[in-house]
Amino acid sequence: MLLHATAWQINIVILLHSGTRQARDMTHVRLTMAQALTRYLAAQSIRQLDGSTAPAFAGVWAIFGHGNVAGLGEALYATKDDLPTFRGHNEQGMAHAAIAYAKQSNRRRMMAVTSSIGPGATNMVTAAALAHVNRLPVLFLPGDVFADRRPDPVLQQVEDFTDGTVSANDCFRPVSRFFDRITRPEQILQALPKAMAVLTDPADCGPVTLSLCQDVQAEAYDFPVSFFAPKTHEIRRQKADQNEFDVAIDVLAKAKRPLIIAGGGVRYSGASDDLAAFATRTGIPVASTQAGKSALIDSHDQNLGSLGVTGSSAANALAETADVVLSVGSRLQDFASGSNGMIKGQIIALNVQSHDALKHNALPLLCDAKQGLNDLSDALPELQISSSYAGEIADLSAIWEADMAVVTSAETVSTNALPSDSQVIGAVNRNVPDNTIVVGAAGSMPGELHKLWQAGAVDGYHMEYGFSCMGYEIAAGIGVHMAAPDRPNVIFTGDGSYLMMNSELATAVMMGVSLTLIVTDNRGFGCINRLQAGTGGAAFNNMLADSYHAVLPDIDFVAHAAAMGARAVKAETLAALEELTAAAIKHDGVDVIVIDTDPAHSTEAGGIWWDVAVPAVSKRKSVNEAHAKYVKGRKRQAKGAPLASGK
């Protein structure tokens, strides 16, 4: 086109092109995809419950390999002052720590976790499922194969003989709320805002996986400078639909025996004070799910304790006879609902997620917990339970408190008996400050803690029981400390969970984390051993003594913990446990206290039937007897409660 142009025309064209380049240089910045990703994450903030703002990401957990060390690793080094990187010993453990951090932060802050491709990535899938079930935000950044496929198959690559697009990271798809595979640098311009929308959405919150092809991590692109502008995300508070709200207030106003169920949504919404005020004014009793426990402190007059299979006798008795149940922020899974056999009254499901609000034939009230409780309170200023119902509540609570006092007492049945889990809980609970955060997950302890632990402060109970994942406990203690360093935390784990994942104990030591770990050694999987016996099964493959071993192991947990740098001691008696706990909870650093416990005992008071299928045919009498009880138990399950009259 310029073959016949004059010199001045050529100069103008050159100037115009130069100006375009200069303008583009001012509005764009050349970065690798990984550099752009870390810069974007560092620019995100979230409005906190107290109105302040804080960085959305408190850091990134990383174990580097060939799939992430050169690309993302270099980018993380460049942003380490704004986006710190932490190193763990197991990818699943790192992810558990990140998830626990988000949970204890009431989903207002979070972390990312990165691994190489192959086993590093698949190690995180279990943690992704845990976050998915519990509706908790975490960003997974696993490395992936080469997008250009030049070195195909690369080291650790999983090959599908019929689909060339499949990699090990496809395992994340069913356990991620949002999944994307980044095969070009510019794709993060769309993927990252979508990821943040999910991570900060009160209804759709959960794990996000961005699968990062390792060659693309290192590829450069001219990114818009505006993409990295600081942004503060506001967690929306949804108001209820007026029609749904009118139905809810009409049903509540007519209730004679109302009950409130406090779920995790109360805590994530920051609605603890609102729940306490509403319960105090109306007198309506409150029962808590595992996720909702400590939304209301246990000493509150309207707090009936835990609900369901691991519930208190008081809460379950009233749940069975309540005519209206206001479920606030709960997904009402089988442990809370007694396998759908306990609650017979009309449920009003106040929830941000429509999937949860429609369960159990409930009347949906789709809204934020804090907003909804305040609106209900304003709309029902005269709502108050009867004096006779209040008296019944007080009587049931007194009976339950007496039962708790007995099972948590330090007095043992005989001088030869090992302490029960409930006695261990009592000994520890009596010797920690009110603001202590108790941490646990799978096995015997979640059930006993749900019933018996007395939380003295809001958000003082941190239990992973949605996925009931063994091995969560120690890593979770790290995340809890990082989220609430000014509050002491005490972790309960059985010997089975300890053996399954203890490597992050070394991580806690090297990070200077403060935690007190109580290891209850019942020499096997005591919880499932009791379930096996309760369903008619023979003692088999749960306790070490009932498994096929050439040598019965005698594991020295004190020596093992000490070898990883912890202060570790053995409590030979409950009295010693009390003294050791009182001392350890005041320490900085990691303390481990080991105590032998009786695997056969659990708290009989409280609880309710749980649906665990028993074989219909067996040569063993005990199984046949258990099946007969199972068939009878299944008749408890609700066929679907009728809607309120006229609605």
Question: What's the short version?
Answer:
The chain has about 650 residues and is an alpha/beta fold. The chain has 3 domains: about 30-235, Thiamin diphosphate (ThDP)-binding fold, Pyr/PP domains (Rossmann fold); about 240-400, 3-Layer(aba) Sandwich (Rossmann fold), CATH 3.40.50; about 410-595, Rossmann fold (3-Layer(aba) Sandwich).
Care to describe what's here?
Belongs to the TPP enzyme family. It comes from Puniceispirillum marinum (strain IMCC1322). Helix 2 packs across helix 3 and helix 12 runs antiparallel to helix 16. This protein folds into three domains: 203 residues, 3-Layer(aba) Sandwich (Rossmann fold); 159 residues, 3-Layer(aba) Sandwich (Rossmann fold); 189 residues, Thiamin diphosphate (ThDP)-binding fold, Pyr/PP domains (Rossmann fold, 3-Layer(aba) Sandwich). The protein contains 25 helices and 23 strands. The strands form five sheets. The protein has a six-stranded parallel β-sheet with strand order 5-4-6-7-9-8, sandwiched between helices. Strands 14-13-12-15-16-17 form a six-stranded parallel β-sheet, sandwiched between helices. Helices cover 38% and strands 17% of the residues. Strand 4, helix 3 and strand 5 form a beta-alpha-beta unit. With 647 residues, it is α/β, with parallel strands linked by helices.
